[in-house]
Amino acid sequence: MTPNKTPSFLHTLHDKAMAFLRWVMPACLAFSLLPGLAQPVVGSTYKDFLPMGGGASVALPEGAWLSSHNSTITRTGYIWETYTLKNTQVDARVPFLVVRQATGSVRWGNTNCQSSTANHFLVNQHGTQANQLINKCSRFFAMGNFDNWRNVSAWTNATDKEWWLDVVKGFEEPGKSFKSSMFLAELSVQQFNGKGLRVEAFILPPKGIGAGQFRDAVKAGDPRPEQTMLDTWASIYIESMQQSYFNKKPQPIMALAYPVNAVAQASTPSTPSTPSALSAPAAAPVTTTPPAPPAVTVAVAPAAVTPVKIEPAPAAAVKPAPAAVVASVTAPAKTEAPTAAPKPLPPAAPPVAAAPDTAAQLRLDQERKALDEEKRKMAQQLEAMTQMLAKLQKENAAAAAAAAAATAKAKDEAASLAQAEAAAKTPVTYANRKALVIGNDLYTDVPKLNNAGADAEAMAKSLEAVGYKVYKHLNLNEKKFKQAVRDFRQQLSGGDEVLFFYAGHGVQLGNANYLLPIDVKGDQEDQVKDDAILLQKVLDDLEEKKTKFALAVIDACRDNPFKGKGRAIGGRGLAPTSAATGQMIMFSAGSGQQALDRLGDNDKERNGLFTRIFVKEMLKPGLSVDRVLRNVRNEVVRLARSVGHEQTPALYDQAIGEFYFKQ
């Protein structure tokens, strides 16, 4: 017996399926983790760029940045999401950074660069104005002692305090102090009624000068070489923010190349600026006084005395000293004059010049060379920064121009679309579609009606929407009513599709139905017949014009308007009628029935029950006219019965072929 073998293609299919699962499962897991990695995570370290979610990012200064704290500040209509970061690189020029993004529509107005504060310096709007779609602003502040400044809980300005109180928690380093003076660079890019991004960078001042002294020199017009570098660096950062965050094209920035002290610069006697929240970050004023130079005390220690044993030298080795010298050394001092004059001493040897301090000179030369090298590197860095800035400005200008062009194109397309939609909404009027619409409410001698005029308005609007040329009249007296019918008859020609709608009082006299003008008297039946409009006459006029299709819709089946006259003229409702070939006739209620205006006291509709349903069904596409009329009748019956009333619209159909209100 041959064992059963699985076909080879099933093995292949199984292997491919397993390989797919091995690939897709990690991929699904990775995608599931993406939202958590989209924005800065406390405890994570970032380099070069900080992810901000949705493909946006912010370039980071040189170093390795630890995300130390996240917080939020709520404003009207939007929220500032704030991320505090610490640079873990030793002796970093930018030790701390705060990145804030606004979620929601930021309040748009004057930029911080236009504020009146005297504390900021190196203020730059980067070619933007407050009324433009993009605002840019960079400015610097000086603080004398960073440790004192970040004691935000002691601040008295409530707005400034709120802006920084939770943020500075990310600056804390237990057991460490940071008493350096510091620059605070505030960099902002903001869209009109849209996103906002702010970076607040804490920067060490150049070597040998405090932040306050640097600020004062800038304001006094005595710039240092580092001033241009700081200003250019801020400009590059601003352009990078626009590209990386708003355009979602990551753009790195350059490092600050000027030298700083290995240990942060000591406090300066200047008073730091105090920016305010939103318009400026808050800084608590700190005044420090430089320490007096220490007194110098030189202590001389007593010399140590060690007894020395002197051995006599061999006789041959000892030369006798001159008598005079021996006498001067060994002879005891005498007060009396010598008996003989001493011999003159030999002339003193000329002084020998001291050897030059070659070590000090070498040190000065080395310092001079180092300074020259620092200046050379700064010049090279500044040149590179200038070139990068020009490149970024060109790219952002091109992107802005492209965005403006796209916006203009979108506006043009939107305008064209709006015109097209308006044209589509504007009904096309067909030459062979004509309608006479009459609504009578304001009767003078019989009870007034509430809905007839509104019914005529609604019917006219719906007929226009499906292409009818509508002749609408409201509250016609006898003369104007008859004139309107004659004028409409003159507009008709063979082959037209015609609709006649009447809302108002109607009455049955004998076997005929009459439509009542607003000035009808009704004292006698013959008078009513003379003054009213015979419905059959209107239908006969339509037939004589050889219309292709004619529909008469009569919403006049109400209580007898003459029943209060003391003599019964007519009865409730209208009499059954007959339609000619090519005609359809519909009454809002059957013989002897009353048409409802409302479905109860809570019914706030402006139109009577019959008309409100008719105009809705008429606008449904793809329904033939006879189907529309039957739908209207069914719905009227259902709703009338829901309030305990019998109302069945009467339909008389002699039309040939199918006709549509809306295809």
Percent in strands: 15-25%
pLDDT averaged over residues: 78
Q: What is the helix fraction of residues, given as a range? A: 25-40%
Tell me, briefly, the overall form. rod-shaped
* Strand arrangement in the largest pleated sheet: 1-4-5-6-10-9-8-7
Radius of gyration: 51 Å
Residue windows where pLDDT falls under 50 for at least 5 positions: 1-6, 26-37, 263-340
GO molecular function: cysteine-type endopeptidase activity
InterPro entries: Caspase-like_dom_sf (IPR029030), Caspase-related_regulators (IPR052039), Pept_C14_caspase (IPR011600), Pept_C14_p20 (IPR001309)
Keywords: Coiled coil
Pfam families: Peptidase_C14
How would you describe what is shown here?
There is one protein chain. Among the domains are: about 40-245, Protein Transport Mog1p, Chain A (3-Layer(aba) Sandwich); about 435-655, Rossmann fold (3-Layer(aba) Sandwich), CATH 3.40.50. It is rod-shaped and about 140 Å long. It is about 35% helix and about 20% strand. The strands form four sheets. An eight-stranded antiparallel sheet has the order 1-4-5-6-10-9-8-7. A six-stranded mixed sheet has the order 12-11-13-17-18-19, sandwiched between helices. A three-stranded antiparallel sheet has the order 14-15-16. With about 675 residues, it is α+β, with helices and mostly antiparallel strands. The protein has helices at about 10-35, 145-150, 160-165, 210-220, 225-245, 325-330, 360-425, 450-465, 480-490, 525-530, 535-545, 610-620, 625-640, and strands at about 45, 50-55, 55-60, 65-75, 80-85, 95-105, 120-125, 135-145, 180-190, 195-205, 435-440, 470-475, 495-505, 505-510, 510-515, 535, 550-555, 585, 650-655. Keywords: Coiled coil. One of its GO terms (biological process) is proteolysis. One of its GO terms (molecular function) is cysteine-type endopeptidase activity. This is Caspase family p20 domain-containing protein.
